Amino acid sequence: MGMAPEFPVTATGYESVLSAVIERSVGPQAAEIDRTGAFPREGVQALGEAGLLGLLSARNVGGGGESLEAAAHVIETVGARCASTATVMLMHYAAVAVIEAHGPQDVRRLIARGDHLSSLAFSEVGSRSHFWAPIGTAKAGDGDTVALDARKSWVTSAGHADSYVWSSRPLACQKTAAGGAMTLWLVPGKAAGLRVAAKFDGLGLRGSASSPVSGVNVMVPADARLGNDGAGWDIAMVTALPTLLVLNAALSLGIMEALVAEAGAHLARSRLQHLDETLVEQPVSRAAFARLRIRTDGVRAFLRDTLEALATGRDDATLRVLEVKAVAAEAASEVADGALQLCGDAAFRKELGIERLFRDALGARVMAPTTEALHDFVGRTCLGLPLFDAARA
Ligand SMILES: Cc1cc2nc3c(=O)[nH]c(=O)nc-3n(C[C@H](O)[C@H](O)[C@H](O)COP(=O)(O)OP(=O)(O)OC[C@H]3O[C@@H](n4cnc5c(N)ncnc54)[C@H](O)[C@@H]3O)c2cc1C
Q1: Which of 12, 127, 136, 181 allows an S-S link to 177, with CB 3.0 to 4.6 Å?
Q2: CA-CA distances (angstroms) from residue 211 to 26, 66, 143, 360, 391?
Q3: Which H or E run contains 90?
Q4: How many whole angstroms from 371 Cα to the centroid of ligand 1?
Q5: Which of 34, 90, 128 to mutate to test the pocket of ligand 1 (most atoms within 8 A of CB)?
Q6: How far is CA 370 from CA 59, 299, 311, in A?
Q7: Average pLDDT over residues 263-283
Q8: Residue 19 in 3-state DSSP?
Q9: How many C-beta atoms surround the C-beta of residue 190 within 10 A?
Q10: Ligand 1 pocket: which of 370, 374, 375, 376 to mutate (most atoms within 8 A of CB)
């Protein structure tokens, strides 16, 4: 309904390119991508050509050098039109945060140029949503090589990404810990031994190609390691996770804005002919709409505060980061449910787009770190406990 304040990003020029790509490529394909589950290749390519895959890459490798706040704006805006494409972008940005800090120059340059899509391969069949406890292994191979073996349970852009930021147990420690013992690797998307196990056929985010990927004896050079052996969790905590959590919240916000806009438009054009009134003129409908608006604005305020805490290095920045995805994911589910109830039959059918947004909204709460995991992390942080219990002997 255009009532929400604009996200306060600085005007650096990418916004006009962004809206052009969304109008030309991302938006028009969204319904078909949802229907068929096809990967949004054209939209991602257009976003790359517009410089948006390189948005977070440093200027000295040719990237946009933009802030997390700018990336949040991109994900929110793309997510409001095509949540599948936004999911691909946010997993890319989370991987880029690691690659920028620890990856090779040539890959960083390709990303900055928009010629390289990456993703995170953290979650595993064995440890499920507890991705901080990889079961997959890294073993020294012949010469200067390392063999990676794992059964990754979900990888967005599986089979489409040019690389994966891949977690394993540390080389030096083959025991699985309760959490935090992990090493990160940059694995080429076409590496021998990788196999996309099945096509993704999900409830929502259907174009995100979030499939299981197995790796059997995947040989990578030893210098494909991102950071020190065993330092993967610490690296993820300062790079991938803040990016993933904040951008996931931005995606939920984009979906909520789209739901509120669709619901408002429906109320304005739908009439009760016998009363000669629109639904906007019904106090109960207005109040229900207001609840959706208030919930959405609350998430925007929380996201803005989180970004400010990060940008200014506030003491509560880590806490806000751990909170923001849970706040937004739960709110998105509530707003989706509320929009469905408010708009009734029309929302239950596909004509308003609320049905697709409803399904897409539900993804965030089960995406790791899940709401339950984040509640535990927040409780531990506030009550003075470490994020993980000590490793079993
Ligand atoms: C669309 C989509 C895209 C994804 N993309 C990626 C990706 O690119 N890379 C990647 O690494 N992963 C990705 N994932 C995987 C995801 O992040 C999770 O790791 C995975 O969905 C969790 O799998 P699960 O439901 O089998 O886990 P489970 O651990 O079985 O969790 C099921 C439910 O149980 C709850 N639960 C689990 N343990 C506990 C506990 N101890 N106490 C209380 N509740 C608990 C969880 O919160 C969750 O609600 C993606 C997931 C989705 C849905």
Answers
A1: 181
A2: 22, 30, 32, 16, 30
A3: helix 83-102
A4: 10
A5: 128
A6: 33, 17, 25
A7: 96
A8: helix
A9: 10
A10: 370
pLDDT, the chain, mean: 93
* Ligand 1 pocket test, candidate residues 33, 123, 200, 243, most atoms within 8 A of CB: 123
* pLDDT over 60 (residue 1): no
Percent of the chain with pLDDT over 90: 89
> Which residues partner with 137 through β-bridges?
149
Contact present, 146 and 171 (Cβ < 8 Å): yes
Residue in this structure with the two tokens 């589910």, named with its chain if needed = 333
Q: Which of 56-60, 98-102, 268-272, 386-390 has the lowest mean pLDDT?
A: 386-390
pLDDT band at 177 (very low <50, low <70, confident <90, very high): low
The count of other CB atoms within 10 Å of the CB of residue 164 is: 28
The tally of CA atoms less than 13 A away on the side-chain side of residue 109 is 3
Do residues 373 and 325 touch, judged by C-beta distance below 8 A?
no
Say yes or no to pLDDT of 152 above 90: yes
| Residue 78 · residue 89 · CB < 8 Å | yes
Distance from the alpha carbon of residue 375 to the mean position of ligand 1, in angstroms: 14
- Locus of tokens 């409908």: 285
Domains of the chain: 14-116 (1.10.540.10), 120-229 (2.40.110.10), 239-382 (1.20.140.10)
- pLDDT tens, 276-319? 999 999 999 999 999 999 999 999 999 999 999 999 999 999 99
380 Cβ neighbours under 8 A, 6+ residues apart: 386, 387
pLDDT in tens, 35-89: 999 999 999 999 999 999 999 999 999 999 999 999 999 999 999 999 999 999 9
- The answer to whether 9 and 74 are in contact (CB under 8 A) is no
Buried b (16+ CB within 10 A) or exposed e, 86-103: bbbbbbbbbbbbbbbebb
Q: Which tokens hold the place of 225?
A: 């390691």
First vs last Cα of the chain: how many Å apart?
57
Q: d(Cα 146, Cα 140) in Å, to the nearest integer?
A: 5
Measure the CA–CA gap between 359 and 157, rounded to whole angstroms: 19
How many A from CA of 3 to the centre of ligand 1?
A: 34
